[in-house]
Amino acid sequence: MSELQPGLAPQVECWTKLVLEQGWCVIPNVASPQLIDALDTDLADDFHDTPFCKGGFYGARTKRFGRLLARSPLARKLVQHPLILGISRRVLDPWCDTIQLNLTQALALHPGAPPQLPHRDQDMWRGASGETEYLLNVMWPFTRYTRENGATVVWPNSHGRRALDPEPPSGAFPVELEPSSALLFLGSTLHGAGGNASSEVRRGAIVSYCLGWLKPYENQWLAYPPEIARGFSPELAALVGYQQHRPNLGNYEGQCPSVLLQRHIPERFAAIDALRPDQEALLAQFVDEQDWPAQTAAA
Is the pTM of this model over 0.90? Predict the structure, then answer.
């Protein structure tokens, strides 16, 4: 786990407590309006040229596209925002060795877009509900999110064990946002895009983080193959999948996949254990109890 910047720990604890209690929270003024506006400008052609989605869930009046880290270098500032990363790790660390980027997705909700089916993002994995938090979503608005233009609708206190309730709780409401703010909500929180009854396009991006042992929503190694990931910092490359999750998950030829980011890649590798401390201790005890080297030498 990366060290937090000095003085950031109290903020991480405060916002983590709130998102775990409510299932969601809004952090105001967490990014500069200039950064958000510049990223929106960088993605203008993508917003224009991307076709509308097909299917009732994605929405026939909605445009969506991923791979934001390959489309604009400014996306890195959102993905690696120190406060957001700190909260994400604090929320997810109890269930994993490392977290990973689940997706980056820009979306534009056009006038006439109907409301989205209420859903919980954790249900994509069909894992057990009510105990584990699988992911944390961060909604970054590029334009104002209002009730009229389809702001994300959240069901407060629908998360965690409440996800097992047969009926959702009352009190759902659209979360209105300014472009410098961020909406955080758990993968177990019931939510959905609102309908756009206005004459304006609602634009923004979703960045989400999940447990490092899950298959992410966006195939990160296809989104950011080695020739692209070589331009990332080691920390960002690890976040998009160029790291192992102990024990040995996501390896390449028995090694951390970050070996693919080297300038010179050997034809063959020696597989190297990547174990948790408890597994290393168990293995060391097992090896110490064996007389296998002596027997082999005698043979």
Answer: yes
